[in-house]
Design brief:
The chain is mostly helical. It has two domains: 50 residues; 56 residues, no CATH class. The protein has six helices and two strands; from the N terminus they run ααααααββ. A two-stranded antiparallel ribbon has the order 1-2.
């Protein structure tokens, strides 16, 4: 038996007890949030159709992701232009990629003396 394991087992049992208390309380809290968000007329009046934006305006403003799709533009950059940062690193020659302790990975740049 390791020294201090009694302390750890006491902490473990307290953590388990707190998790069960949280899980017992969670359904009640979720019902309260559901009631607030889905059945509260004031909340719904203040949040539904308060900021619609046209597809043209969304594109002009540079929207992307869910905001762009919410405006009615069926475009997902992950599908049209997939990329992987790892593939970008692999495509660089080993001489261009070096690890430095102060700036992490530097790709083809000289280390400056500035912090």
């Amino acid at each position: 038996m390791l020294a201090g394991s009694a302390v750890l087992s006491g902490i473990y049992s307290e953590v388990i007890k707190k998790i069960y208390e949280f899980l017992d309380h969670l359904p009640k809290v979720l019902r309260q949030f559901e009631k607030l968000l889905l059945r509260n007329r004031i909340f719904m009046d203040r949040t539904i159709n308060v900021g619609p934006i046209s597809a043209e305006r969304a594109v002009n403003y540079g929207f992307s992701g869910p905001n762009l799709r919410a405006a009615g533009v069926d475009y997902d950059v992950r599908v049209t232009s997939p990329y992987s940062p790892m593939m970008i690193l692999i495509s660089l020659s080993r001489s261009e990629v070096r690890a430095t302790p102060t700036i992490g990975f530097a790709c083809g740049r000289k280390k400056s003396g500035k912090a």
